[in-house]
Amino acid sequence: MSHSRGLVYTFALTALMSLTLFSASGCAGAFLMPIYLIYGTDAPAVYKNEMKAIPKGSKMVVICRSNLNLFGSANPNADLAQSVTYVVSTEMKDKKKKKLVWIPYAEVEDRFDEEELNSLSFEKMGHELKADYVIGVEIDAFDIHHSTQFFQGNAKVLVRMIRVQDGETVVRQSMPTYTYPTNPIPRSEYDEIEFQKTFTVRLARNIATLFCPHDPHAEYATDSDFSNR
User: I need a labelling partner for 225 at 20 to 30 A (CA). Which of 18, 21, 113, 159 fits?
Assistant: First the structure.
């Protein structure tokens, strides 16, 4: 074992032993804070290698759709697509940000009507938008009503990333049902549209973990958006 590797091993072992002792005394958080400050809390994207392989200058577009018969403000397609685009494009590492070009969702809305969004393949829409890759999100379930008195969002999505040139599905992930917040909140205290938009942003951040680095501890404070009023 080299000297440098020996130092790393010694530090890791000491840290583990110290964490065990500090946890028993309730001081684990104080011990871990310096580590977070030095090394950060980001976990890599689930599909880090697939994102790394995308050629420089590639045009990306996010398209969301569902067959849930949700109309008007209750339809999350546009908000979710815009949110996923924003989160993925801004939370990538700086080098990757400069590598990709993101097509605004306004171009998707200008080019396709609701029927076309639900009937055309992601590959076909990507080709007509002159995109190189499509991140396609199929919404299998979406509901923000826990009961007649409480809000709690639940959604189930299938996410694919398709290379438009040959139609190959580079990424395919059926994600577990996403629930937010952990504890239902009273409907009397929040506007329905406000709640849905907040839930949609949280869902977008969950989807974005497939494609960009993320803080795995962020969900521990999922009720923080809805403090008592």
Answer: 159
